[in-house]
Amino acid sequence: MFDSFLNTKDSDGGPLSLQSAEYECFVFTVGAQDTTAAFMSAFVDHMLNNLNVKSRLLEEIDQFDQAGQISSPVVSYEETTAMPYLMACCQETLRLSPSVSMVLPRYVSSDGMLIGSTSIPDGTEVSANPFVLHRDKTIFGEDAEVFNPDRWLGDANQVRTMEKYFFAFGYGSRKCIGRHLAVFEAQKFFVQ
Predict the structure, then answer these.
(1) 168 forms bridges with which residues in the sheet?
(2) pLDDT digits over 169-189, tens only?
(3) How would you class 110 by CB atoms within 10 Å of its CB: exposed for 0-12, middle for 13-18, buried for 19 or more?
(4) What are the residues facing 126 on neighbouring strands?
(5) Residue 32 confidence class, pLDDT cut points 50, 70, 90
């Protein structure tokens, strides 16, 4: 893997720096295993510390099971995503306890960038921290520090706004390509 990154070209057509190649190897290695495990661990922790949420989730799973909407022995992706409270608990876990809480640096393109009234010149490294962004009370509500899956089941406009700023898997063209697999793996674990 490291050899392939050493042969990769940067945006200027030159070779990746050793630091960039090491970073990309780190992302591929950690992204596949440790982040999914961190998500699962945080989910279990939130359930153990919010017993009312845990009870409500177990009720939803039981209702789906009793209605014959959960395959046995292996639940399907469609079945897990049809469970609104499970999905809200997953979103809320990733919001409050993102698996990657470090800053994710990017470089400003040749046109520069305007953030509010501040002009950022091209080539400047900028970043956003999901741990901080996901606690913004103007986006996620006054209870942004609290584990509250119901925030994802409320007003559709508010949910769209929160999704717009949801950064647990990165954003835009650099969004984690394994996010669906990671979330599905976790969803299956939680239901079964």
Answers:
(1) 170
(2) 877 777 777 788 788 888 888
(3) exposed
(4) 106
(5) low
